[in-house]
Amino acid sequence: MDTNHFAWSLRIRNLSTTRYEKNIPETTNGLQPGGGTVRARDTEQRLMTRGIERVCVIGAGISGLACALAMAGRGIRVEVLGASTRPCASPVHLEIAPSMLRDLVHLGVGEDCVRTGFAYQGMDVVDGRGRRLFELPTERLAGQRYPAALGICHRDLRQILECAAMARGVIVKRGARVTAVQPHGVHMRAELESGEAVEADIALLAAGAGSDLRAALFPRSCPPDDVGQAWWYALVPRPVDLDRPLIGIGQAGRRAILVPVRHDTAGLALIEARRASNPDSAIPHLRTVLASFAPRLRAVADRLTADTPVALRPARSGLLASPWHRGGVLAVGDCAHALPPHFGQATAQAVEDARVLGELLARTSDRAVLFEAFERRRLERVRHVHRLTATAARWDVEPDSEADLSLLMNQLTQTVAHPS
Ligand SMILES: Cc1cc2nc3c(=O)[nH]c(=O)nc-3n(C[C@H](O)[C@H](O)[C@H](O)COP(=O)(O)OP(=O)(O)OC[C@H]3O[C@@H](n4cnc5c(N)ncnc54)[C@H](O)[C@@H]3O)c2cc1C
Predict the structure, then answer these.
(1) Could you tell me which residues come within 8 angstroms of residue 357 by beta carbon, excluding any fewer than 6 positions away?
(2) For the whole prediction, is pTM greater than 0.85?
(3) Counting atoms of ligand 1 from 1, which one is nearest the CA of 88?
(4) 72: CA distance to ligand 1 center in Å?
(5) What value does the CA radius of gyration of the chain take, rounded to a whole number of Å?
(6) Which atom of ligand 1 is nearest to the CA of 62?
(7) Whether residue 313 has its Cβ less than 6 Å from ligand 1
(8) CATH numeric code, 3-88+156-224+318-398
(9) What is the spatial distance between Cα 350 and Cα 112, in angstroms, rounded to a whole number?
(10) 63 CB under 6 A from ligand 1?
(11) 97 lines ligand 1 (CB under 6 A)
(12) Which of 57, 248, 376, 390 makes the best surface tag, with the fewest CB within 10 Å?
Protein backbone atom coordinates (compact mmCIF):
# COMPACT_ATOMS: atom_id res chain seq x y z
CA MET A 1 0.00 0.00 0.00
CA ASP A 2 1.50 3.38 -0.87
CA THR A 3 1.83 5.96 1.89
CA ASN A 4 -0.51 8.43 0.23
CA HIS A 5 -3.30 5.90 0.17
CA PHE A 6 -2.66 5.11 3.83
CA ALA A 7 -2.77 8.77 4.88
CA TRP A 8 -5.98 9.26 2.90
CA SER A 9 -7.80 6.33 4.44
CA LEU A 10 -6.67 7.47 7.89
CA ARG A 11 -8.20 10.89 7.22
CA ILE A 12 -11.49 9.24 6.29
CA ARG A 13 -11.44 7.21 9.50
CA ASN A 14 -10.80 10.31 11.60
CA LEU A 15 -13.66 12.04 9.87
CA SER A 16 -15.89 9.15 10.76
CA THR A 17 -14.87 9.35 14.40
CA THR A 18 -15.72 13.02 14.73
CA ARG A 19 -19.04 12.66 12.96
CA TYR A 20 -20.37 9.57 14.60
CA GLU A 21 -18.72 9.09 17.93
CA LYS A 22 -19.66 12.43 19.42
CA ASN A 23 -23.11 12.60 20.85
CA ILE A 24 -24.45 14.94 18.17
CA PRO A 25 -28.21 15.49 17.99
CA GLU A 26 -29.63 13.81 14.91
CA THR A 27 -31.82 15.35 12.27
CA THR A 28 -34.29 13.11 10.53
CA ASN A 29 -32.34 13.11 7.36
CA GLY A 30 -28.82 14.32 7.73
CA LEU A 31 -25.43 13.41 9.04
CA GLN A 32 -24.46 16.96 9.87
CA PRO A 33 -27.19 18.52 11.90
CA GLY A 34 -27.14 22.28 12.43
CA GLY A 35 -24.18 24.46 11.66
CA GLY A 36 -23.23 22.75 8.37
CA THR A 37 -22.16 24.91 5.44
CA VAL A 38 -24.58 25.67 2.61
CA ARG A 39 -22.53 23.34 0.42
CA ALA A 40 -22.81 20.55 2.94
CA ARG A 41 -26.57 21.06 3.15
CA ASP A 42 -26.84 21.01 -0.65
CA THR A 43 -24.91 17.76 -0.79
CA GLU A 44 -27.16 16.34 1.89
CA GLN A 45 -30.25 17.36 -0.08
CA ARG A 46 -28.86 15.75 -3.22
CA LEU A 47 -28.09 12.60 -1.24
CA MET A 48 -31.62 12.36 0.11
CA THR A 49 -33.35 12.68 -3.24
CA ARG A 50 -31.09 10.29 -5.15
CA GLY A 51 -32.57 7.15 -6.59
CA ILE A 52 -31.56 3.72 -5.36
CA GLU A 53 -29.74 1.44 -7.74
CA ARG A 54 -27.02 -0.04 -5.56
CA VAL A 55 -27.31 -1.09 -1.93
CA CYS A 56 -24.68 -2.32 0.44
CA VAL A 57 -25.94 -4.51 3.28
CA ILE A 58 -23.80 -4.68 6.41
CA GLY A 59 -24.30 -8.05 8.10
CA ALA A 60 -24.92 -11.50 6.60
CA GLY A 61 -27.38 -12.75 9.24
CA ILE A 62 -31.03 -13.63 8.56
CA SER A 63 -32.03 -9.99 8.35
CA GLY A 64 -29.27 -8.86 5.97
CA LEU A 65 -29.79 -11.84 3.66
CA ALA A 66 -33.61 -11.57 3.65
CA CYS A 67 -33.41 -7.85 2.83
CA ALA A 68 -30.81 -8.53 0.12
CA LEU A 69 -33.14 -11.10 -1.43
CA ALA A 70 -36.12 -8.73 -1.35
CA MET A 71 -34.15 -5.84 -2.89
CA ALA A 72 -32.54 -7.98 -5.60
CA GLY A 73 -36.09 -8.98 -6.54
CA ARG A 74 -36.64 -5.31 -7.43
CA GLY A 75 -33.67 -5.22 -9.78
CA ILE A 76 -31.33 -3.49 -7.33
CA ARG A 77 -27.64 -4.40 -7.28
CA VAL A 78 -26.91 -5.63 -3.78
CA GLU A 79 -23.65 -6.45 -2.04
CA VAL A 80 -23.75 -8.09 1.40
CA LEU A 81 -20.75 -7.58 3.67
CA GLY A 82 -20.48 -10.17 6.45
CA ALA A 83 -17.88 -9.97 9.20
CA SER A 84 -17.41 -13.68 9.83
CA THR A 85 -15.27 -15.70 7.46
CA ARG A 86 -17.69 -18.61 7.39
CA PRO A 87 -21.44 -18.97 7.88
CA CYS A 88 -22.55 -19.36 11.49
CA ALA A 89 -22.89 -23.06 12.38
CA SER A 90 -24.51 -22.49 15.76
CA PRO A 91 -26.77 -25.40 16.95
CA VAL A 92 -29.76 -23.09 17.05
CA HIS A 93 -33.24 -23.79 15.75
CA LEU A 94 -36.02 -21.41 14.86
CA GLU A 95 -39.76 -21.69 14.91
CA ILE A 96 -41.04 -20.33 11.63
CA ALA A 97 -44.29 -18.94 12.99
CA PRO A 98 -47.28 -18.70 10.58
CA SER A 99 -46.70 -15.00 9.85
CA MET A 100 -43.04 -15.61 9.12
CA LEU A 101 -43.83 -18.49 6.75
CA ARG A 102 -46.27 -16.19 4.94
CA ASP A 103 -43.50 -13.60 4.49
CA LEU A 104 -40.89 -16.18 3.43
CA VAL A 105 -43.35 -17.42 0.78
CA HIS A 106 -43.71 -13.82 -0.36
CA LEU A 107 -39.90 -13.58 -0.66
CA GLY A 108 -39.92 -16.71 -2.85
CA VAL A 109 -38.29 -19.21 -0.48
CA GLY A 110 -41.38 -20.86 1.05
CA GLU A 111 -40.95 -24.15 -0.79
CA ASP A 112 -37.26 -24.44 0.09
CA CYS A 113 -38.13 -23.88 3.73
CA VAL A 114 -40.86 -26.54 3.66
CA ARG A 115 -38.51 -29.01 1.94
CA THR A 116 -35.75 -28.41 4.49
CA GLY A 117 -37.63 -27.89 7.76
CA PHE A 118 -40.33 -29.84 9.59
CA ALA A 119 -43.96 -28.82 9.11
CA TYR A 120 -46.28 -28.76 12.11
CA GLN A 121 -49.67 -27.55 13.31
CA GLY A 122 -50.18 -26.35 16.89
CA MET A 123 -47.98 -26.68 19.97
CA ASP A 124 -48.49 -28.59 23.20
CA VAL A 125 -47.86 -26.98 26.57
CA VAL A 126 -47.32 -29.51 29.38
CA ASP A 127 -46.62 -29.37 33.11
CA GLY A 128 -43.80 -31.12 34.99
CA ARG A 129 -45.65 -34.45 34.91
CA GLY A 130 -46.39 -34.28 31.23
CA ARG A 131 -50.09 -33.36 31.61
CA ARG A 132 -51.29 -31.21 28.77
CA LEU A 133 -52.16 -27.76 30.10
CA PHE A 134 -53.31 -26.27 26.81
CA GLU A 135 -52.63 -26.16 23.10
CA LEU A 136 -51.27 -23.10 21.34
CA PRO A 137 -52.93 -22.99 17.93
CA THR A 138 -51.15 -22.05 14.71
CA GLU A 139 -53.17 -20.59 11.86
CA ARG A 140 -52.41 -21.21 8.21
CA LEU A 141 -51.39 -17.75 7.03
CA ALA A 142 -49.26 -18.73 4.04
CA GLY A 143 -52.11 -20.16 1.97
CA GLN A 144 -53.54 -23.64 1.56
CA ARG A 145 -50.47 -25.00 -0.25
CA TYR A 146 -48.36 -24.42 2.83
CA PRO A 147 -48.38 -25.81 6.35
CA ALA A 148 -49.17 -23.55 9.30
CA ALA A 149 -45.66 -23.43 10.74
CA LEU A 150 -42.22 -25.02 10.51
CA GLY A 151 -39.29 -25.89 12.71
CA ILE A 152 -35.93 -25.27 11.02
CA CYS A 153 -32.23 -25.05 11.90
CA HIS A 154 -31.03 -21.45 11.99
CA ARG A 155 -28.14 -22.35 9.67
CA ASP A 156 -30.53 -24.00 7.16
CA LEU A 157 -32.70 -20.89 6.93
CA ARG A 158 -29.64 -18.68 6.58
CA GLN A 159 -28.35 -20.90 3.78
CA ILE A 160 -31.69 -20.92 1.96
CA LEU A 161 -31.78 -17.12 2.02
CA GLU A 162 -28.16 -16.81 0.92
CA CYS A 163 -28.55 -19.24 -2.01
CA ALA A 164 -31.78 -17.54 -3.17
CA ALA A 165 -30.19 -14.09 -2.89
CA MET A 166 -27.12 -15.19 -4.87
CA ALA A 167 -29.35 -16.73 -7.52
CA ARG A 168 -30.83 -13.22 -7.94
CA GLY A 169 -27.35 -11.77 -8.43
CA VAL A 170 -26.54 -10.64 -4.86
CA ILE A 171 -22.83 -10.65 -4.05
CA VAL A 172 -22.06 -11.99 -0.57
CA LYS A 173 -18.61 -11.13 0.77
CA ARG A 174 -17.38 -12.93 3.87
CA GLY A 175 -14.59 -11.80 6.18
CA ALA A 176 -15.68 -8.26 5.30
CA ARG A 177 -16.01 -6.42 8.60
CA VAL A 178 -17.20 -2.86 8.10
CA THR A 179 -15.49 -0.31 10.33
CA ALA A 180 -17.14 2.94 9.20
CA VAL A 181 -19.96 4.15 6.96
CA GLN A 182 -20.16 7.68 5.68
CA PRO A 183 -21.16 9.79 2.71
CA HIS A 184 -18.71 10.00 -0.14
CA GLY A 185 -19.86 12.39 -2.86
CA VAL A 186 -23.38 11.30 -3.70
CA HIS A 187 -22.81 7.76 -2.42
CA MET A 188 -22.55 6.01 0.92
CA ARG A 189 -19.20 4.43 1.49
CA ALA A 190 -18.64 1.39 3.73
CA GLU A 191 -15.04 0.95 4.76
CA LEU A 192 -13.76 -2.50 5.52
CA GLU A 193 -11.18 -3.60 8.05
CA SER A 194 -9.09 -4.83 5.12
CA GLY A 195 -8.75 -1.25 3.83
CA GLU A 196 -11.15 -1.82 0.92
CA ALA A 197 -14.31 0.23 0.54
CA VAL A 198 -17.70 -0.39 -1.03
CA GLU A 199 -19.89 2.40 -2.39
CA ALA A 200 -23.63 2.32 -2.81
CA ASP A 201 -26.66 4.61 -2.91
CA ILE A 202 -27.75 3.47 0.54
CA ALA A 203 -26.35 1.22 3.26
CA LEU A 204 -28.56 -1.15 5.21
CA LEU A 205 -27.30 -1.75 8.71
CA ALA A 206 -28.17 -5.39 9.55
CA ALA A 207 -25.27 -5.97 11.91
CA GLY A 208 -27.29 -7.18 14.90
CA ALA A 209 -28.19 -5.69 18.25
CA GLY A 210 -24.74 -5.52 19.79
CA SER A 211 -22.74 -4.17 16.86
CA ASP A 212 -20.28 -1.31 17.35
CA LEU A 213 -21.61 0.31 14.19
CA ARG A 214 -25.09 0.56 15.71
CA ALA A 215 -23.63 2.48 18.64
CA ALA A 216 -21.44 4.64 16.39
CA LEU A 217 -24.09 5.51 13.80
CA PHE A 218 -26.97 5.95 16.25
CA PRO A 219 -25.25 7.41 19.31
CA ARG A 220 -28.49 8.64 20.90
CA SER A 221 -29.83 5.12 21.15
CA CYS A 222 -29.22 2.94 24.20
CA PRO A 223 -28.00 -0.61 23.73
CA PRO A 224 -30.76 -3.23 24.17
CA ASP A 225 -31.40 -4.44 27.74
CA ASP A 226 -30.36 -7.83 28.96
CA VAL A 227 -33.66 -9.23 30.29
CA GLY A 228 -31.82 -11.52 32.71
CA GLN A 229 -32.74 -14.66 30.82
CA ALA A 230 -30.47 -17.32 29.33
CA TRP A 231 -31.53 -19.34 26.28
CA TRP A 232 -29.63 -22.60 25.81
CA TYR A 233 -29.81 -24.31 22.44
CA ALA A 234 -28.78 -27.77 21.19
CA LEU A 235 -29.74 -30.01 18.29
CA VAL A 236 -30.60 -33.59 19.26
CA PRO A 237 -31.98 -36.69 17.49
CA ARG A 238 -35.75 -36.23 17.03
CA PRO A 239 -37.90 -38.50 19.19
CA VAL A 240 -40.10 -40.43 16.71
CA ASP A 241 -43.32 -39.27 18.36
CA LEU A 242 -42.38 -35.55 18.26
CA ASP A 243 -44.46 -34.12 15.43
CA ARG A 244 -44.97 -30.61 16.80
CA PRO A 245 -43.32 -28.39 19.42
CA LEU A 246 -43.57 -29.46 23.02
CA ILE A 247 -43.30 -26.70 25.59
CA GLY A 248 -42.63 -27.81 29.16
CA ILE A 249 -43.29 -25.47 32.07
CA GLY A 250 -40.70 -26.07 34.77
CA GLN A 251 -39.93 -24.63 38.17
CA ALA A 252 -38.47 -21.21 38.97
CA GLY A 253 -39.50 -19.73 35.63
CA ARG A 254 -37.74 -22.43 33.61
CA ARG A 255 -39.14 -23.65 30.32
CA ALA A 256 -37.95 -26.30 27.90
CA ILE A 257 -39.02 -26.34 24.26
CA LEU A 258 -38.45 -29.23 21.89
CA VAL A 259 -39.13 -28.50 18.23
CA PRO A 260 -38.89 -30.93 15.30
CA VAL A 261 -36.61 -29.28 12.71
CA ARG A 262 -35.81 -32.15 10.32
CA HIS A 263 -37.07 -35.70 10.07
CA ASP A 264 -34.06 -36.84 12.15
CA THR A 265 -33.37 -33.73 14.26
CA ALA A 266 -35.08 -31.70 16.98
CA GLY A 267 -34.05 -28.37 18.41
CA LEU A 268 -33.94 -28.01 22.18
CA ALA A 269 -34.24 -24.61 23.84
CA LEU A 270 -33.94 -24.39 27.59
CA ILE A 271 -34.85 -21.07 29.11
CA GLU A 272 -33.92 -20.00 32.61
CA ALA A 273 -32.83 -17.03 34.68
CA ARG A 274 -29.31 -15.90 33.79
CA ARG A 275 -28.23 -16.18 37.41
CA ALA A 276 -29.22 -19.88 37.48
CA SER A 277 -27.31 -20.87 34.34
CA ASN A 278 -23.90 -22.50 34.47
CA PRO A 279 -22.00 -21.83 31.25
CA ASP A 280 -18.85 -23.58 32.51
CA SER A 281 -20.36 -27.04 32.50
CA ALA A 282 -23.10 -26.85 29.89
CA ILE A 283 -24.03 -30.50 29.31
CA PRO A 284 -24.12 -31.60 32.98
CA HIS A 285 -26.11 -28.45 33.77
CA LEU A 286 -28.65 -29.09 31.00
CA ARG A 287 -29.03 -32.72 32.09
CA THR A 288 -29.68 -31.69 35.69
CA VAL A 289 -32.21 -29.05 34.71
CA LEU A 290 -34.04 -31.31 32.24
CA ALA A 291 -34.56 -33.88 35.03
CA SER A 292 -37.28 -31.65 36.52
CA PHE A 293 -39.37 -31.53 33.32
CA ALA A 294 -42.05 -33.79 31.86
CA PRO A 295 -40.90 -37.35 30.97
CA ARG A 296 -40.72 -36.64 27.20
CA LEU A 297 -38.46 -33.66 27.84
CA ARG A 298 -36.51 -35.45 30.56
CA ALA A 299 -35.68 -38.18 28.04
CA VAL A 300 -33.83 -35.60 25.91
CA ALA A 301 -31.10 -35.53 28.54
CA ASP A 302 -30.02 -39.00 27.32
CA ARG A 303 -29.61 -37.60 23.81
CA LEU A 304 -27.09 -35.01 24.94
CA THR A 305 -23.55 -36.34 24.75
CA ALA A 306 -20.34 -34.69 25.93
CA ASP A 307 -19.72 -33.70 22.28
CA THR A 308 -23.15 -32.16 21.61
CA PRO A 309 -22.55 -28.53 20.56
CA VAL A 310 -24.47 -26.11 22.75
CA ALA A 311 -25.13 -22.38 22.32
CA LEU A 312 -25.97 -19.99 25.13
CA ARG A 313 -27.55 -16.66 24.35
CA PRO A 314 -28.84 -13.90 26.60
CA ALA A 315 -32.29 -12.60 25.65
CA ARG A 316 -32.10 -8.93 24.78
CA SER A 317 -34.82 -6.39 24.43
CA GLY A 318 -34.95 -2.84 23.12
CA LEU A 319 -35.83 -0.72 20.12
CA LEU A 320 -33.55 1.72 18.36
CA ALA A 321 -34.75 5.26 19.03
CA SER A 322 -36.60 6.72 16.06
CA PRO A 323 -35.58 7.60 13.36
CA TRP A 324 -34.13 4.27 12.25
CA HIS A 325 -32.20 6.02 9.48
CA ARG A 326 -29.36 8.43 9.52
CA GLY A 327 -28.01 9.99 6.36
CA GLY A 328 -28.00 7.18 3.81
CA VAL A 329 -28.04 4.39 6.42
CA LEU A 330 -31.18 2.46 7.38
CA ALA A 331 -31.18 0.07 10.38
CA VAL A 332 -33.07 -3.23 10.01
CA GLY A 333 -33.46 -6.51 11.90
CA ASP A 334 -32.08 -6.86 15.44
CA CYS A 335 -30.13 -3.67 14.92
CA ALA A 336 -33.42 -1.71 14.80
CA HIS A 337 -35.47 -3.98 17.08
CA ALA A 338 -33.96 -6.50 19.46
CA LEU A 339 -36.88 -8.66 20.59
CA PRO A 340 -36.88 -11.46 23.15
CA PRO A 341 -37.09 -14.62 20.99
CA HIS A 342 -40.50 -15.65 22.37
CA PHE A 343 -42.97 -17.05 19.82
CA GLY A 344 -40.26 -16.86 17.12
CA GLN A 345 -40.89 -13.14 16.72
CA ALA A 346 -37.27 -11.93 16.77
CA THR A 347 -36.65 -13.54 13.38
CA ALA A 348 -40.21 -13.06 12.14
CA GLN A 349 -39.88 -9.29 12.52
CA ALA A 350 -36.53 -9.29 10.69
CA VAL A 351 -38.21 -11.09 7.78
CA GLU A 352 -41.11 -8.60 7.87
CA ASP A 353 -38.57 -5.80 7.42
CA ALA A 354 -37.37 -7.49 4.24
CA ARG A 355 -40.87 -7.92 2.85
CA VAL A 356 -41.78 -4.30 3.53
CA LEU A 357 -38.54 -3.03 2.04
CA GLY A 358 -39.15 -5.02 -1.15
CA GLU A 359 -42.72 -3.74 -1.42
CA LEU A 360 -41.72 -0.13 -0.89
CA LEU A 361 -38.92 -0.35 -3.45
CA ALA A 362 -41.49 -1.43 -6.03
CA ARG A 363 -43.13 1.98 -5.55
CA THR A 364 -40.29 4.39 -4.93
CA SER A 365 -36.62 4.70 -5.58
CA ASP A 366 -36.37 7.93 -3.64
CA ARG A 367 -34.38 7.28 -0.55
CA ALA A 368 -36.01 9.89 1.72
CA VAL A 369 -39.46 8.61 0.78
CA LEU A 370 -38.33 5.02 1.29
CA PHE A 371 -36.84 5.62 4.73
CA GLU A 372 -39.86 7.54 6.01
CA ALA A 373 -42.32 5.01 4.58
CA PHE A 374 -40.35 2.08 6.01
CA GLU A 375 -40.51 3.45 9.50
CA ARG A 376 -44.19 4.36 9.15
CA ARG A 377 -44.99 0.76 8.22
CA ARG A 378 -42.71 -0.84 10.79
CA LEU A 379 -42.37 1.20 13.95
CA GLU A 380 -45.82 0.84 15.57
CA ARG A 381 -46.08 -2.81 14.61
CA VAL A 382 -42.67 -3.66 16.06
CA ARG A 383 -43.43 -1.63 19.21
CA HIS A 384 -46.56 -3.71 19.77
CA VAL A 385 -44.82 -7.04 19.16
CA HIS A 386 -41.99 -5.89 21.41
CA ARG A 387 -44.43 -5.11 24.25
CA LEU A 388 -45.91 -8.61 24.01
CA THR A 389 -42.63 -10.54 23.77
CA ALA A 390 -41.07 -8.44 26.54
CA THR A 391 -44.07 -9.28 28.75
CA ALA A 392 -43.57 -13.00 28.04
CA ALA A 393 -39.88 -12.65 28.96
CA ARG A 394 -40.76 -10.79 32.18
CA TRP A 395 -43.23 -13.52 33.20
CA ASP A 396 -40.47 -16.09 32.76
CA VAL A 397 -38.04 -14.17 34.92
CA GLU A 398 -40.58 -13.05 37.55
CA PRO A 399 -43.35 -15.71 37.56
CA ASP A 400 -46.73 -14.03 38.02
CA SER A 401 -49.96 -15.77 39.06
CA GLU A 402 -51.89 -13.50 36.67
CA ALA A 403 -49.72 -14.50 33.71
CA ASP A 404 -51.72 -15.90 30.81
CA LEU A 405 -49.37 -17.12 28.08
CA SER A 406 -52.21 -18.35 25.94
CA LEU A 407 -53.91 -14.92 25.98
CA LEU A 408 -50.62 -13.23 25.15
CA MET A 409 -50.05 -15.59 22.23
CA ASN A 410 -53.58 -14.83 21.05
CA GLN A 411 -52.90 -11.10 21.07
CA LEU A 412 -49.68 -11.66 19.20
CA THR A 413 -51.37 -13.87 16.61
CA GLN A 414 -53.95 -11.16 15.96
CA THR A 415 -51.26 -8.48 15.71
CA VAL A 416 -49.24 -10.29 13.05
CA ALA A 417 -52.16 -11.99 11.25
CA HIS A 418 -52.06 -9.35 8.49
CA PRO A 419 -48.85 -8.41 6.71
CA SER A 420 -47.04 -5.38 8.14
C1 LIG B 1 -27.96 -18.13 19.36
C2 LIG B 1 -29.19 -17.55 18.69
C3 LIG B 1 -30.44 -17.95 19.08
C4 LIG B 1 -31.59 -17.41 18.49
N5 LIG B 1 -32.81 -17.86 18.87
C6 LIG B 1 -33.92 -17.36 18.29
C7 LIG B 1 -35.20 -17.85 18.63
O8 LIG B 1 -35.35 -18.77 19.43
N9 LIG B 1 -36.29 -17.27 18.05
C10 LIG B 1 -36.15 -16.25 17.14
O11 LIG B 1 -37.16 -15.74 16.62
N12 LIG B 1 -34.95 -15.83 16.78
C13 LIG B 1 -33.84 -16.34 17.32
N14 LIG B 1 -32.62 -15.92 16.93
C15 LIG B 1 -32.58 -14.99 15.82
C16 LIG B 1 -32.23 -13.61 16.11
O17 LIG B 1 -32.36 -13.17 17.38
C18 LIG B 1 -32.53 -12.53 15.12
O19 LIG B 1 -33.73 -11.90 15.41
C20 LIG B 1 -32.54 -12.82 13.64
O21 LIG B 1 -31.58 -13.78 13.28
C22 LIG B 1 -32.21 -11.54 12.88
O23 LIG B 1 -30.96 -11.10 13.29
P24 LIG B 1 -30.07 -10.11 12.44
O25 LIG B 1 -29.76 -10.71 11.13
O26 LIG B 1 -30.70 -8.78 12.50
O27 LIG B 1 -28.76 -10.03 13.36
P28 LIG B 1 -27.67 -11.15 13.63
O29 LIG B 1 -28.22 -12.51 13.57
O30 LIG B 1 -27.00 -10.72 14.89
O31 LIG B 1 -26.68 -11.00 12.42
C32 LIG B 1 -25.83 -9.88 12.29
C33 LIG B 1 -24.70 -10.25 11.36
O34 LIG B 1 -23.94 -9.09 11.13
C35 LIG B 1 -22.57 -9.41 11.20
N36 LIG B 1 -21.85 -8.19 11.59
C37 LIG B 1 -21.81 -7.58 12.80
N38 LIG B 1 -21.04 -6.48 12.75
C39 LIG B 1 -20.58 -6.40 11.47
C40 LIG B 1 -19.72 -5.48 10.80
N41 LIG B 1 -19.20 -4.44 11.42
N42 LIG B 1 -19.46 -5.71 9.49
C43 LIG B 1 -19.99 -6.76 8.82
N44 LIG B 1 -20.79 -7.66 9.43
C45 LIG B 1 -21.09 -7.48 10.73
C46 LIG B 1 -22.50 -10.51 12.25
O47 LIG B 1 -21.33 -11.28 12.07
C48 LIG B 1 -23.76 -11.28 11.95
O49 LIG B 1 -23.56 -12.29 10.99
C50 LIG B 1 -31.47 -16.44 17.48
C51 LIG B 1 -30.19 -16.03 17.09
C52 LIG B 1 -29.05 -16.58 17.67
C53 LIG B 1 -27.68 -16.14 17.21
Answers:
(1) 67, 70, 71, 332, 370, 374
(2) yes
(3) 49
(4) 21
(5) 22
(6) 25
(7) yes
(8) 3.50.50.60
(9) 19
(10) yes
(11) no
(12) 376
Query: Ligand 1: does its nearest atom lie under 6 Å from the Cβ of 100?
Result: no
394-419 in b/e burial notation, b at 16+ Cβ within 10 A? bbbbeeeeeeebeebbeebbebbeee
Q: Range(s) for CATH 3.30.9.30 in the chain?
A: 93-154+225-316
- CATH topology assigned to domain 93-154+225-316: D-Amino Acid Oxidase; Chain A, domain 2 (3.30.9)
Per-residue confidence of the chain (420 residues) as pLDDT tens digits? 333 332 223 233 333 332 222 222 333 333 332 334 445 555 444 444 458 999 999 999 999 999 999 999 999 999 999 999 987 789 999 999 999 999 999 999 999 999 999 999 999 999 999 999 999 999 999 999 999 999 999 999 999 999 999 999 999 999 999 999 999 988 999 999 999 999 999 999 999 999 999 999 999 999 999 998 999 999 999 999 999 999 999 888 899 999 999 999 999 999 998 877 777 789 999 999 999 999 999 999 999 999 999 999 989 999 999 999 999 999 999 999 999 988 889 999 999 999 999 999 999 999 999 999 999 999 999 999 999 999 998 888 887 788 888 889 899 999 999 999
Q: How far is Cα of residue 346 from the mean position of the Cα atoms in its chain?
A: 6
Binding site membership of 311 for ligand 1 (Cβ less than 6 Å): yes
CA of 405 to the centre of ligand 1 (A): 26
Whether residue 207 has its Cβ less than 6 Å from ligand 1: yes
Domain with CATH 3.50.50.60 in the chain: 3-88+156-224+318-398
How many Å lie between the centroid of ligand 1 and the Cα of residue 61? 5
Rounded to the nearest angstrom, the distance between the alpha carbon of 350 and the centre of ligand 1 is 10
Instruction: Give, using CA atoms, the residue closest to atom 28 of ligand 1.
Output: 208
Give the position, in ligand 1's atom list, of the atom nearest the Cα of 97.
Answer: 11
Distance 82 CA to ligand 1 centre (A): 11
Asked if 172 and 72 touch (Cβ cutoff 8 Å), the reply is no
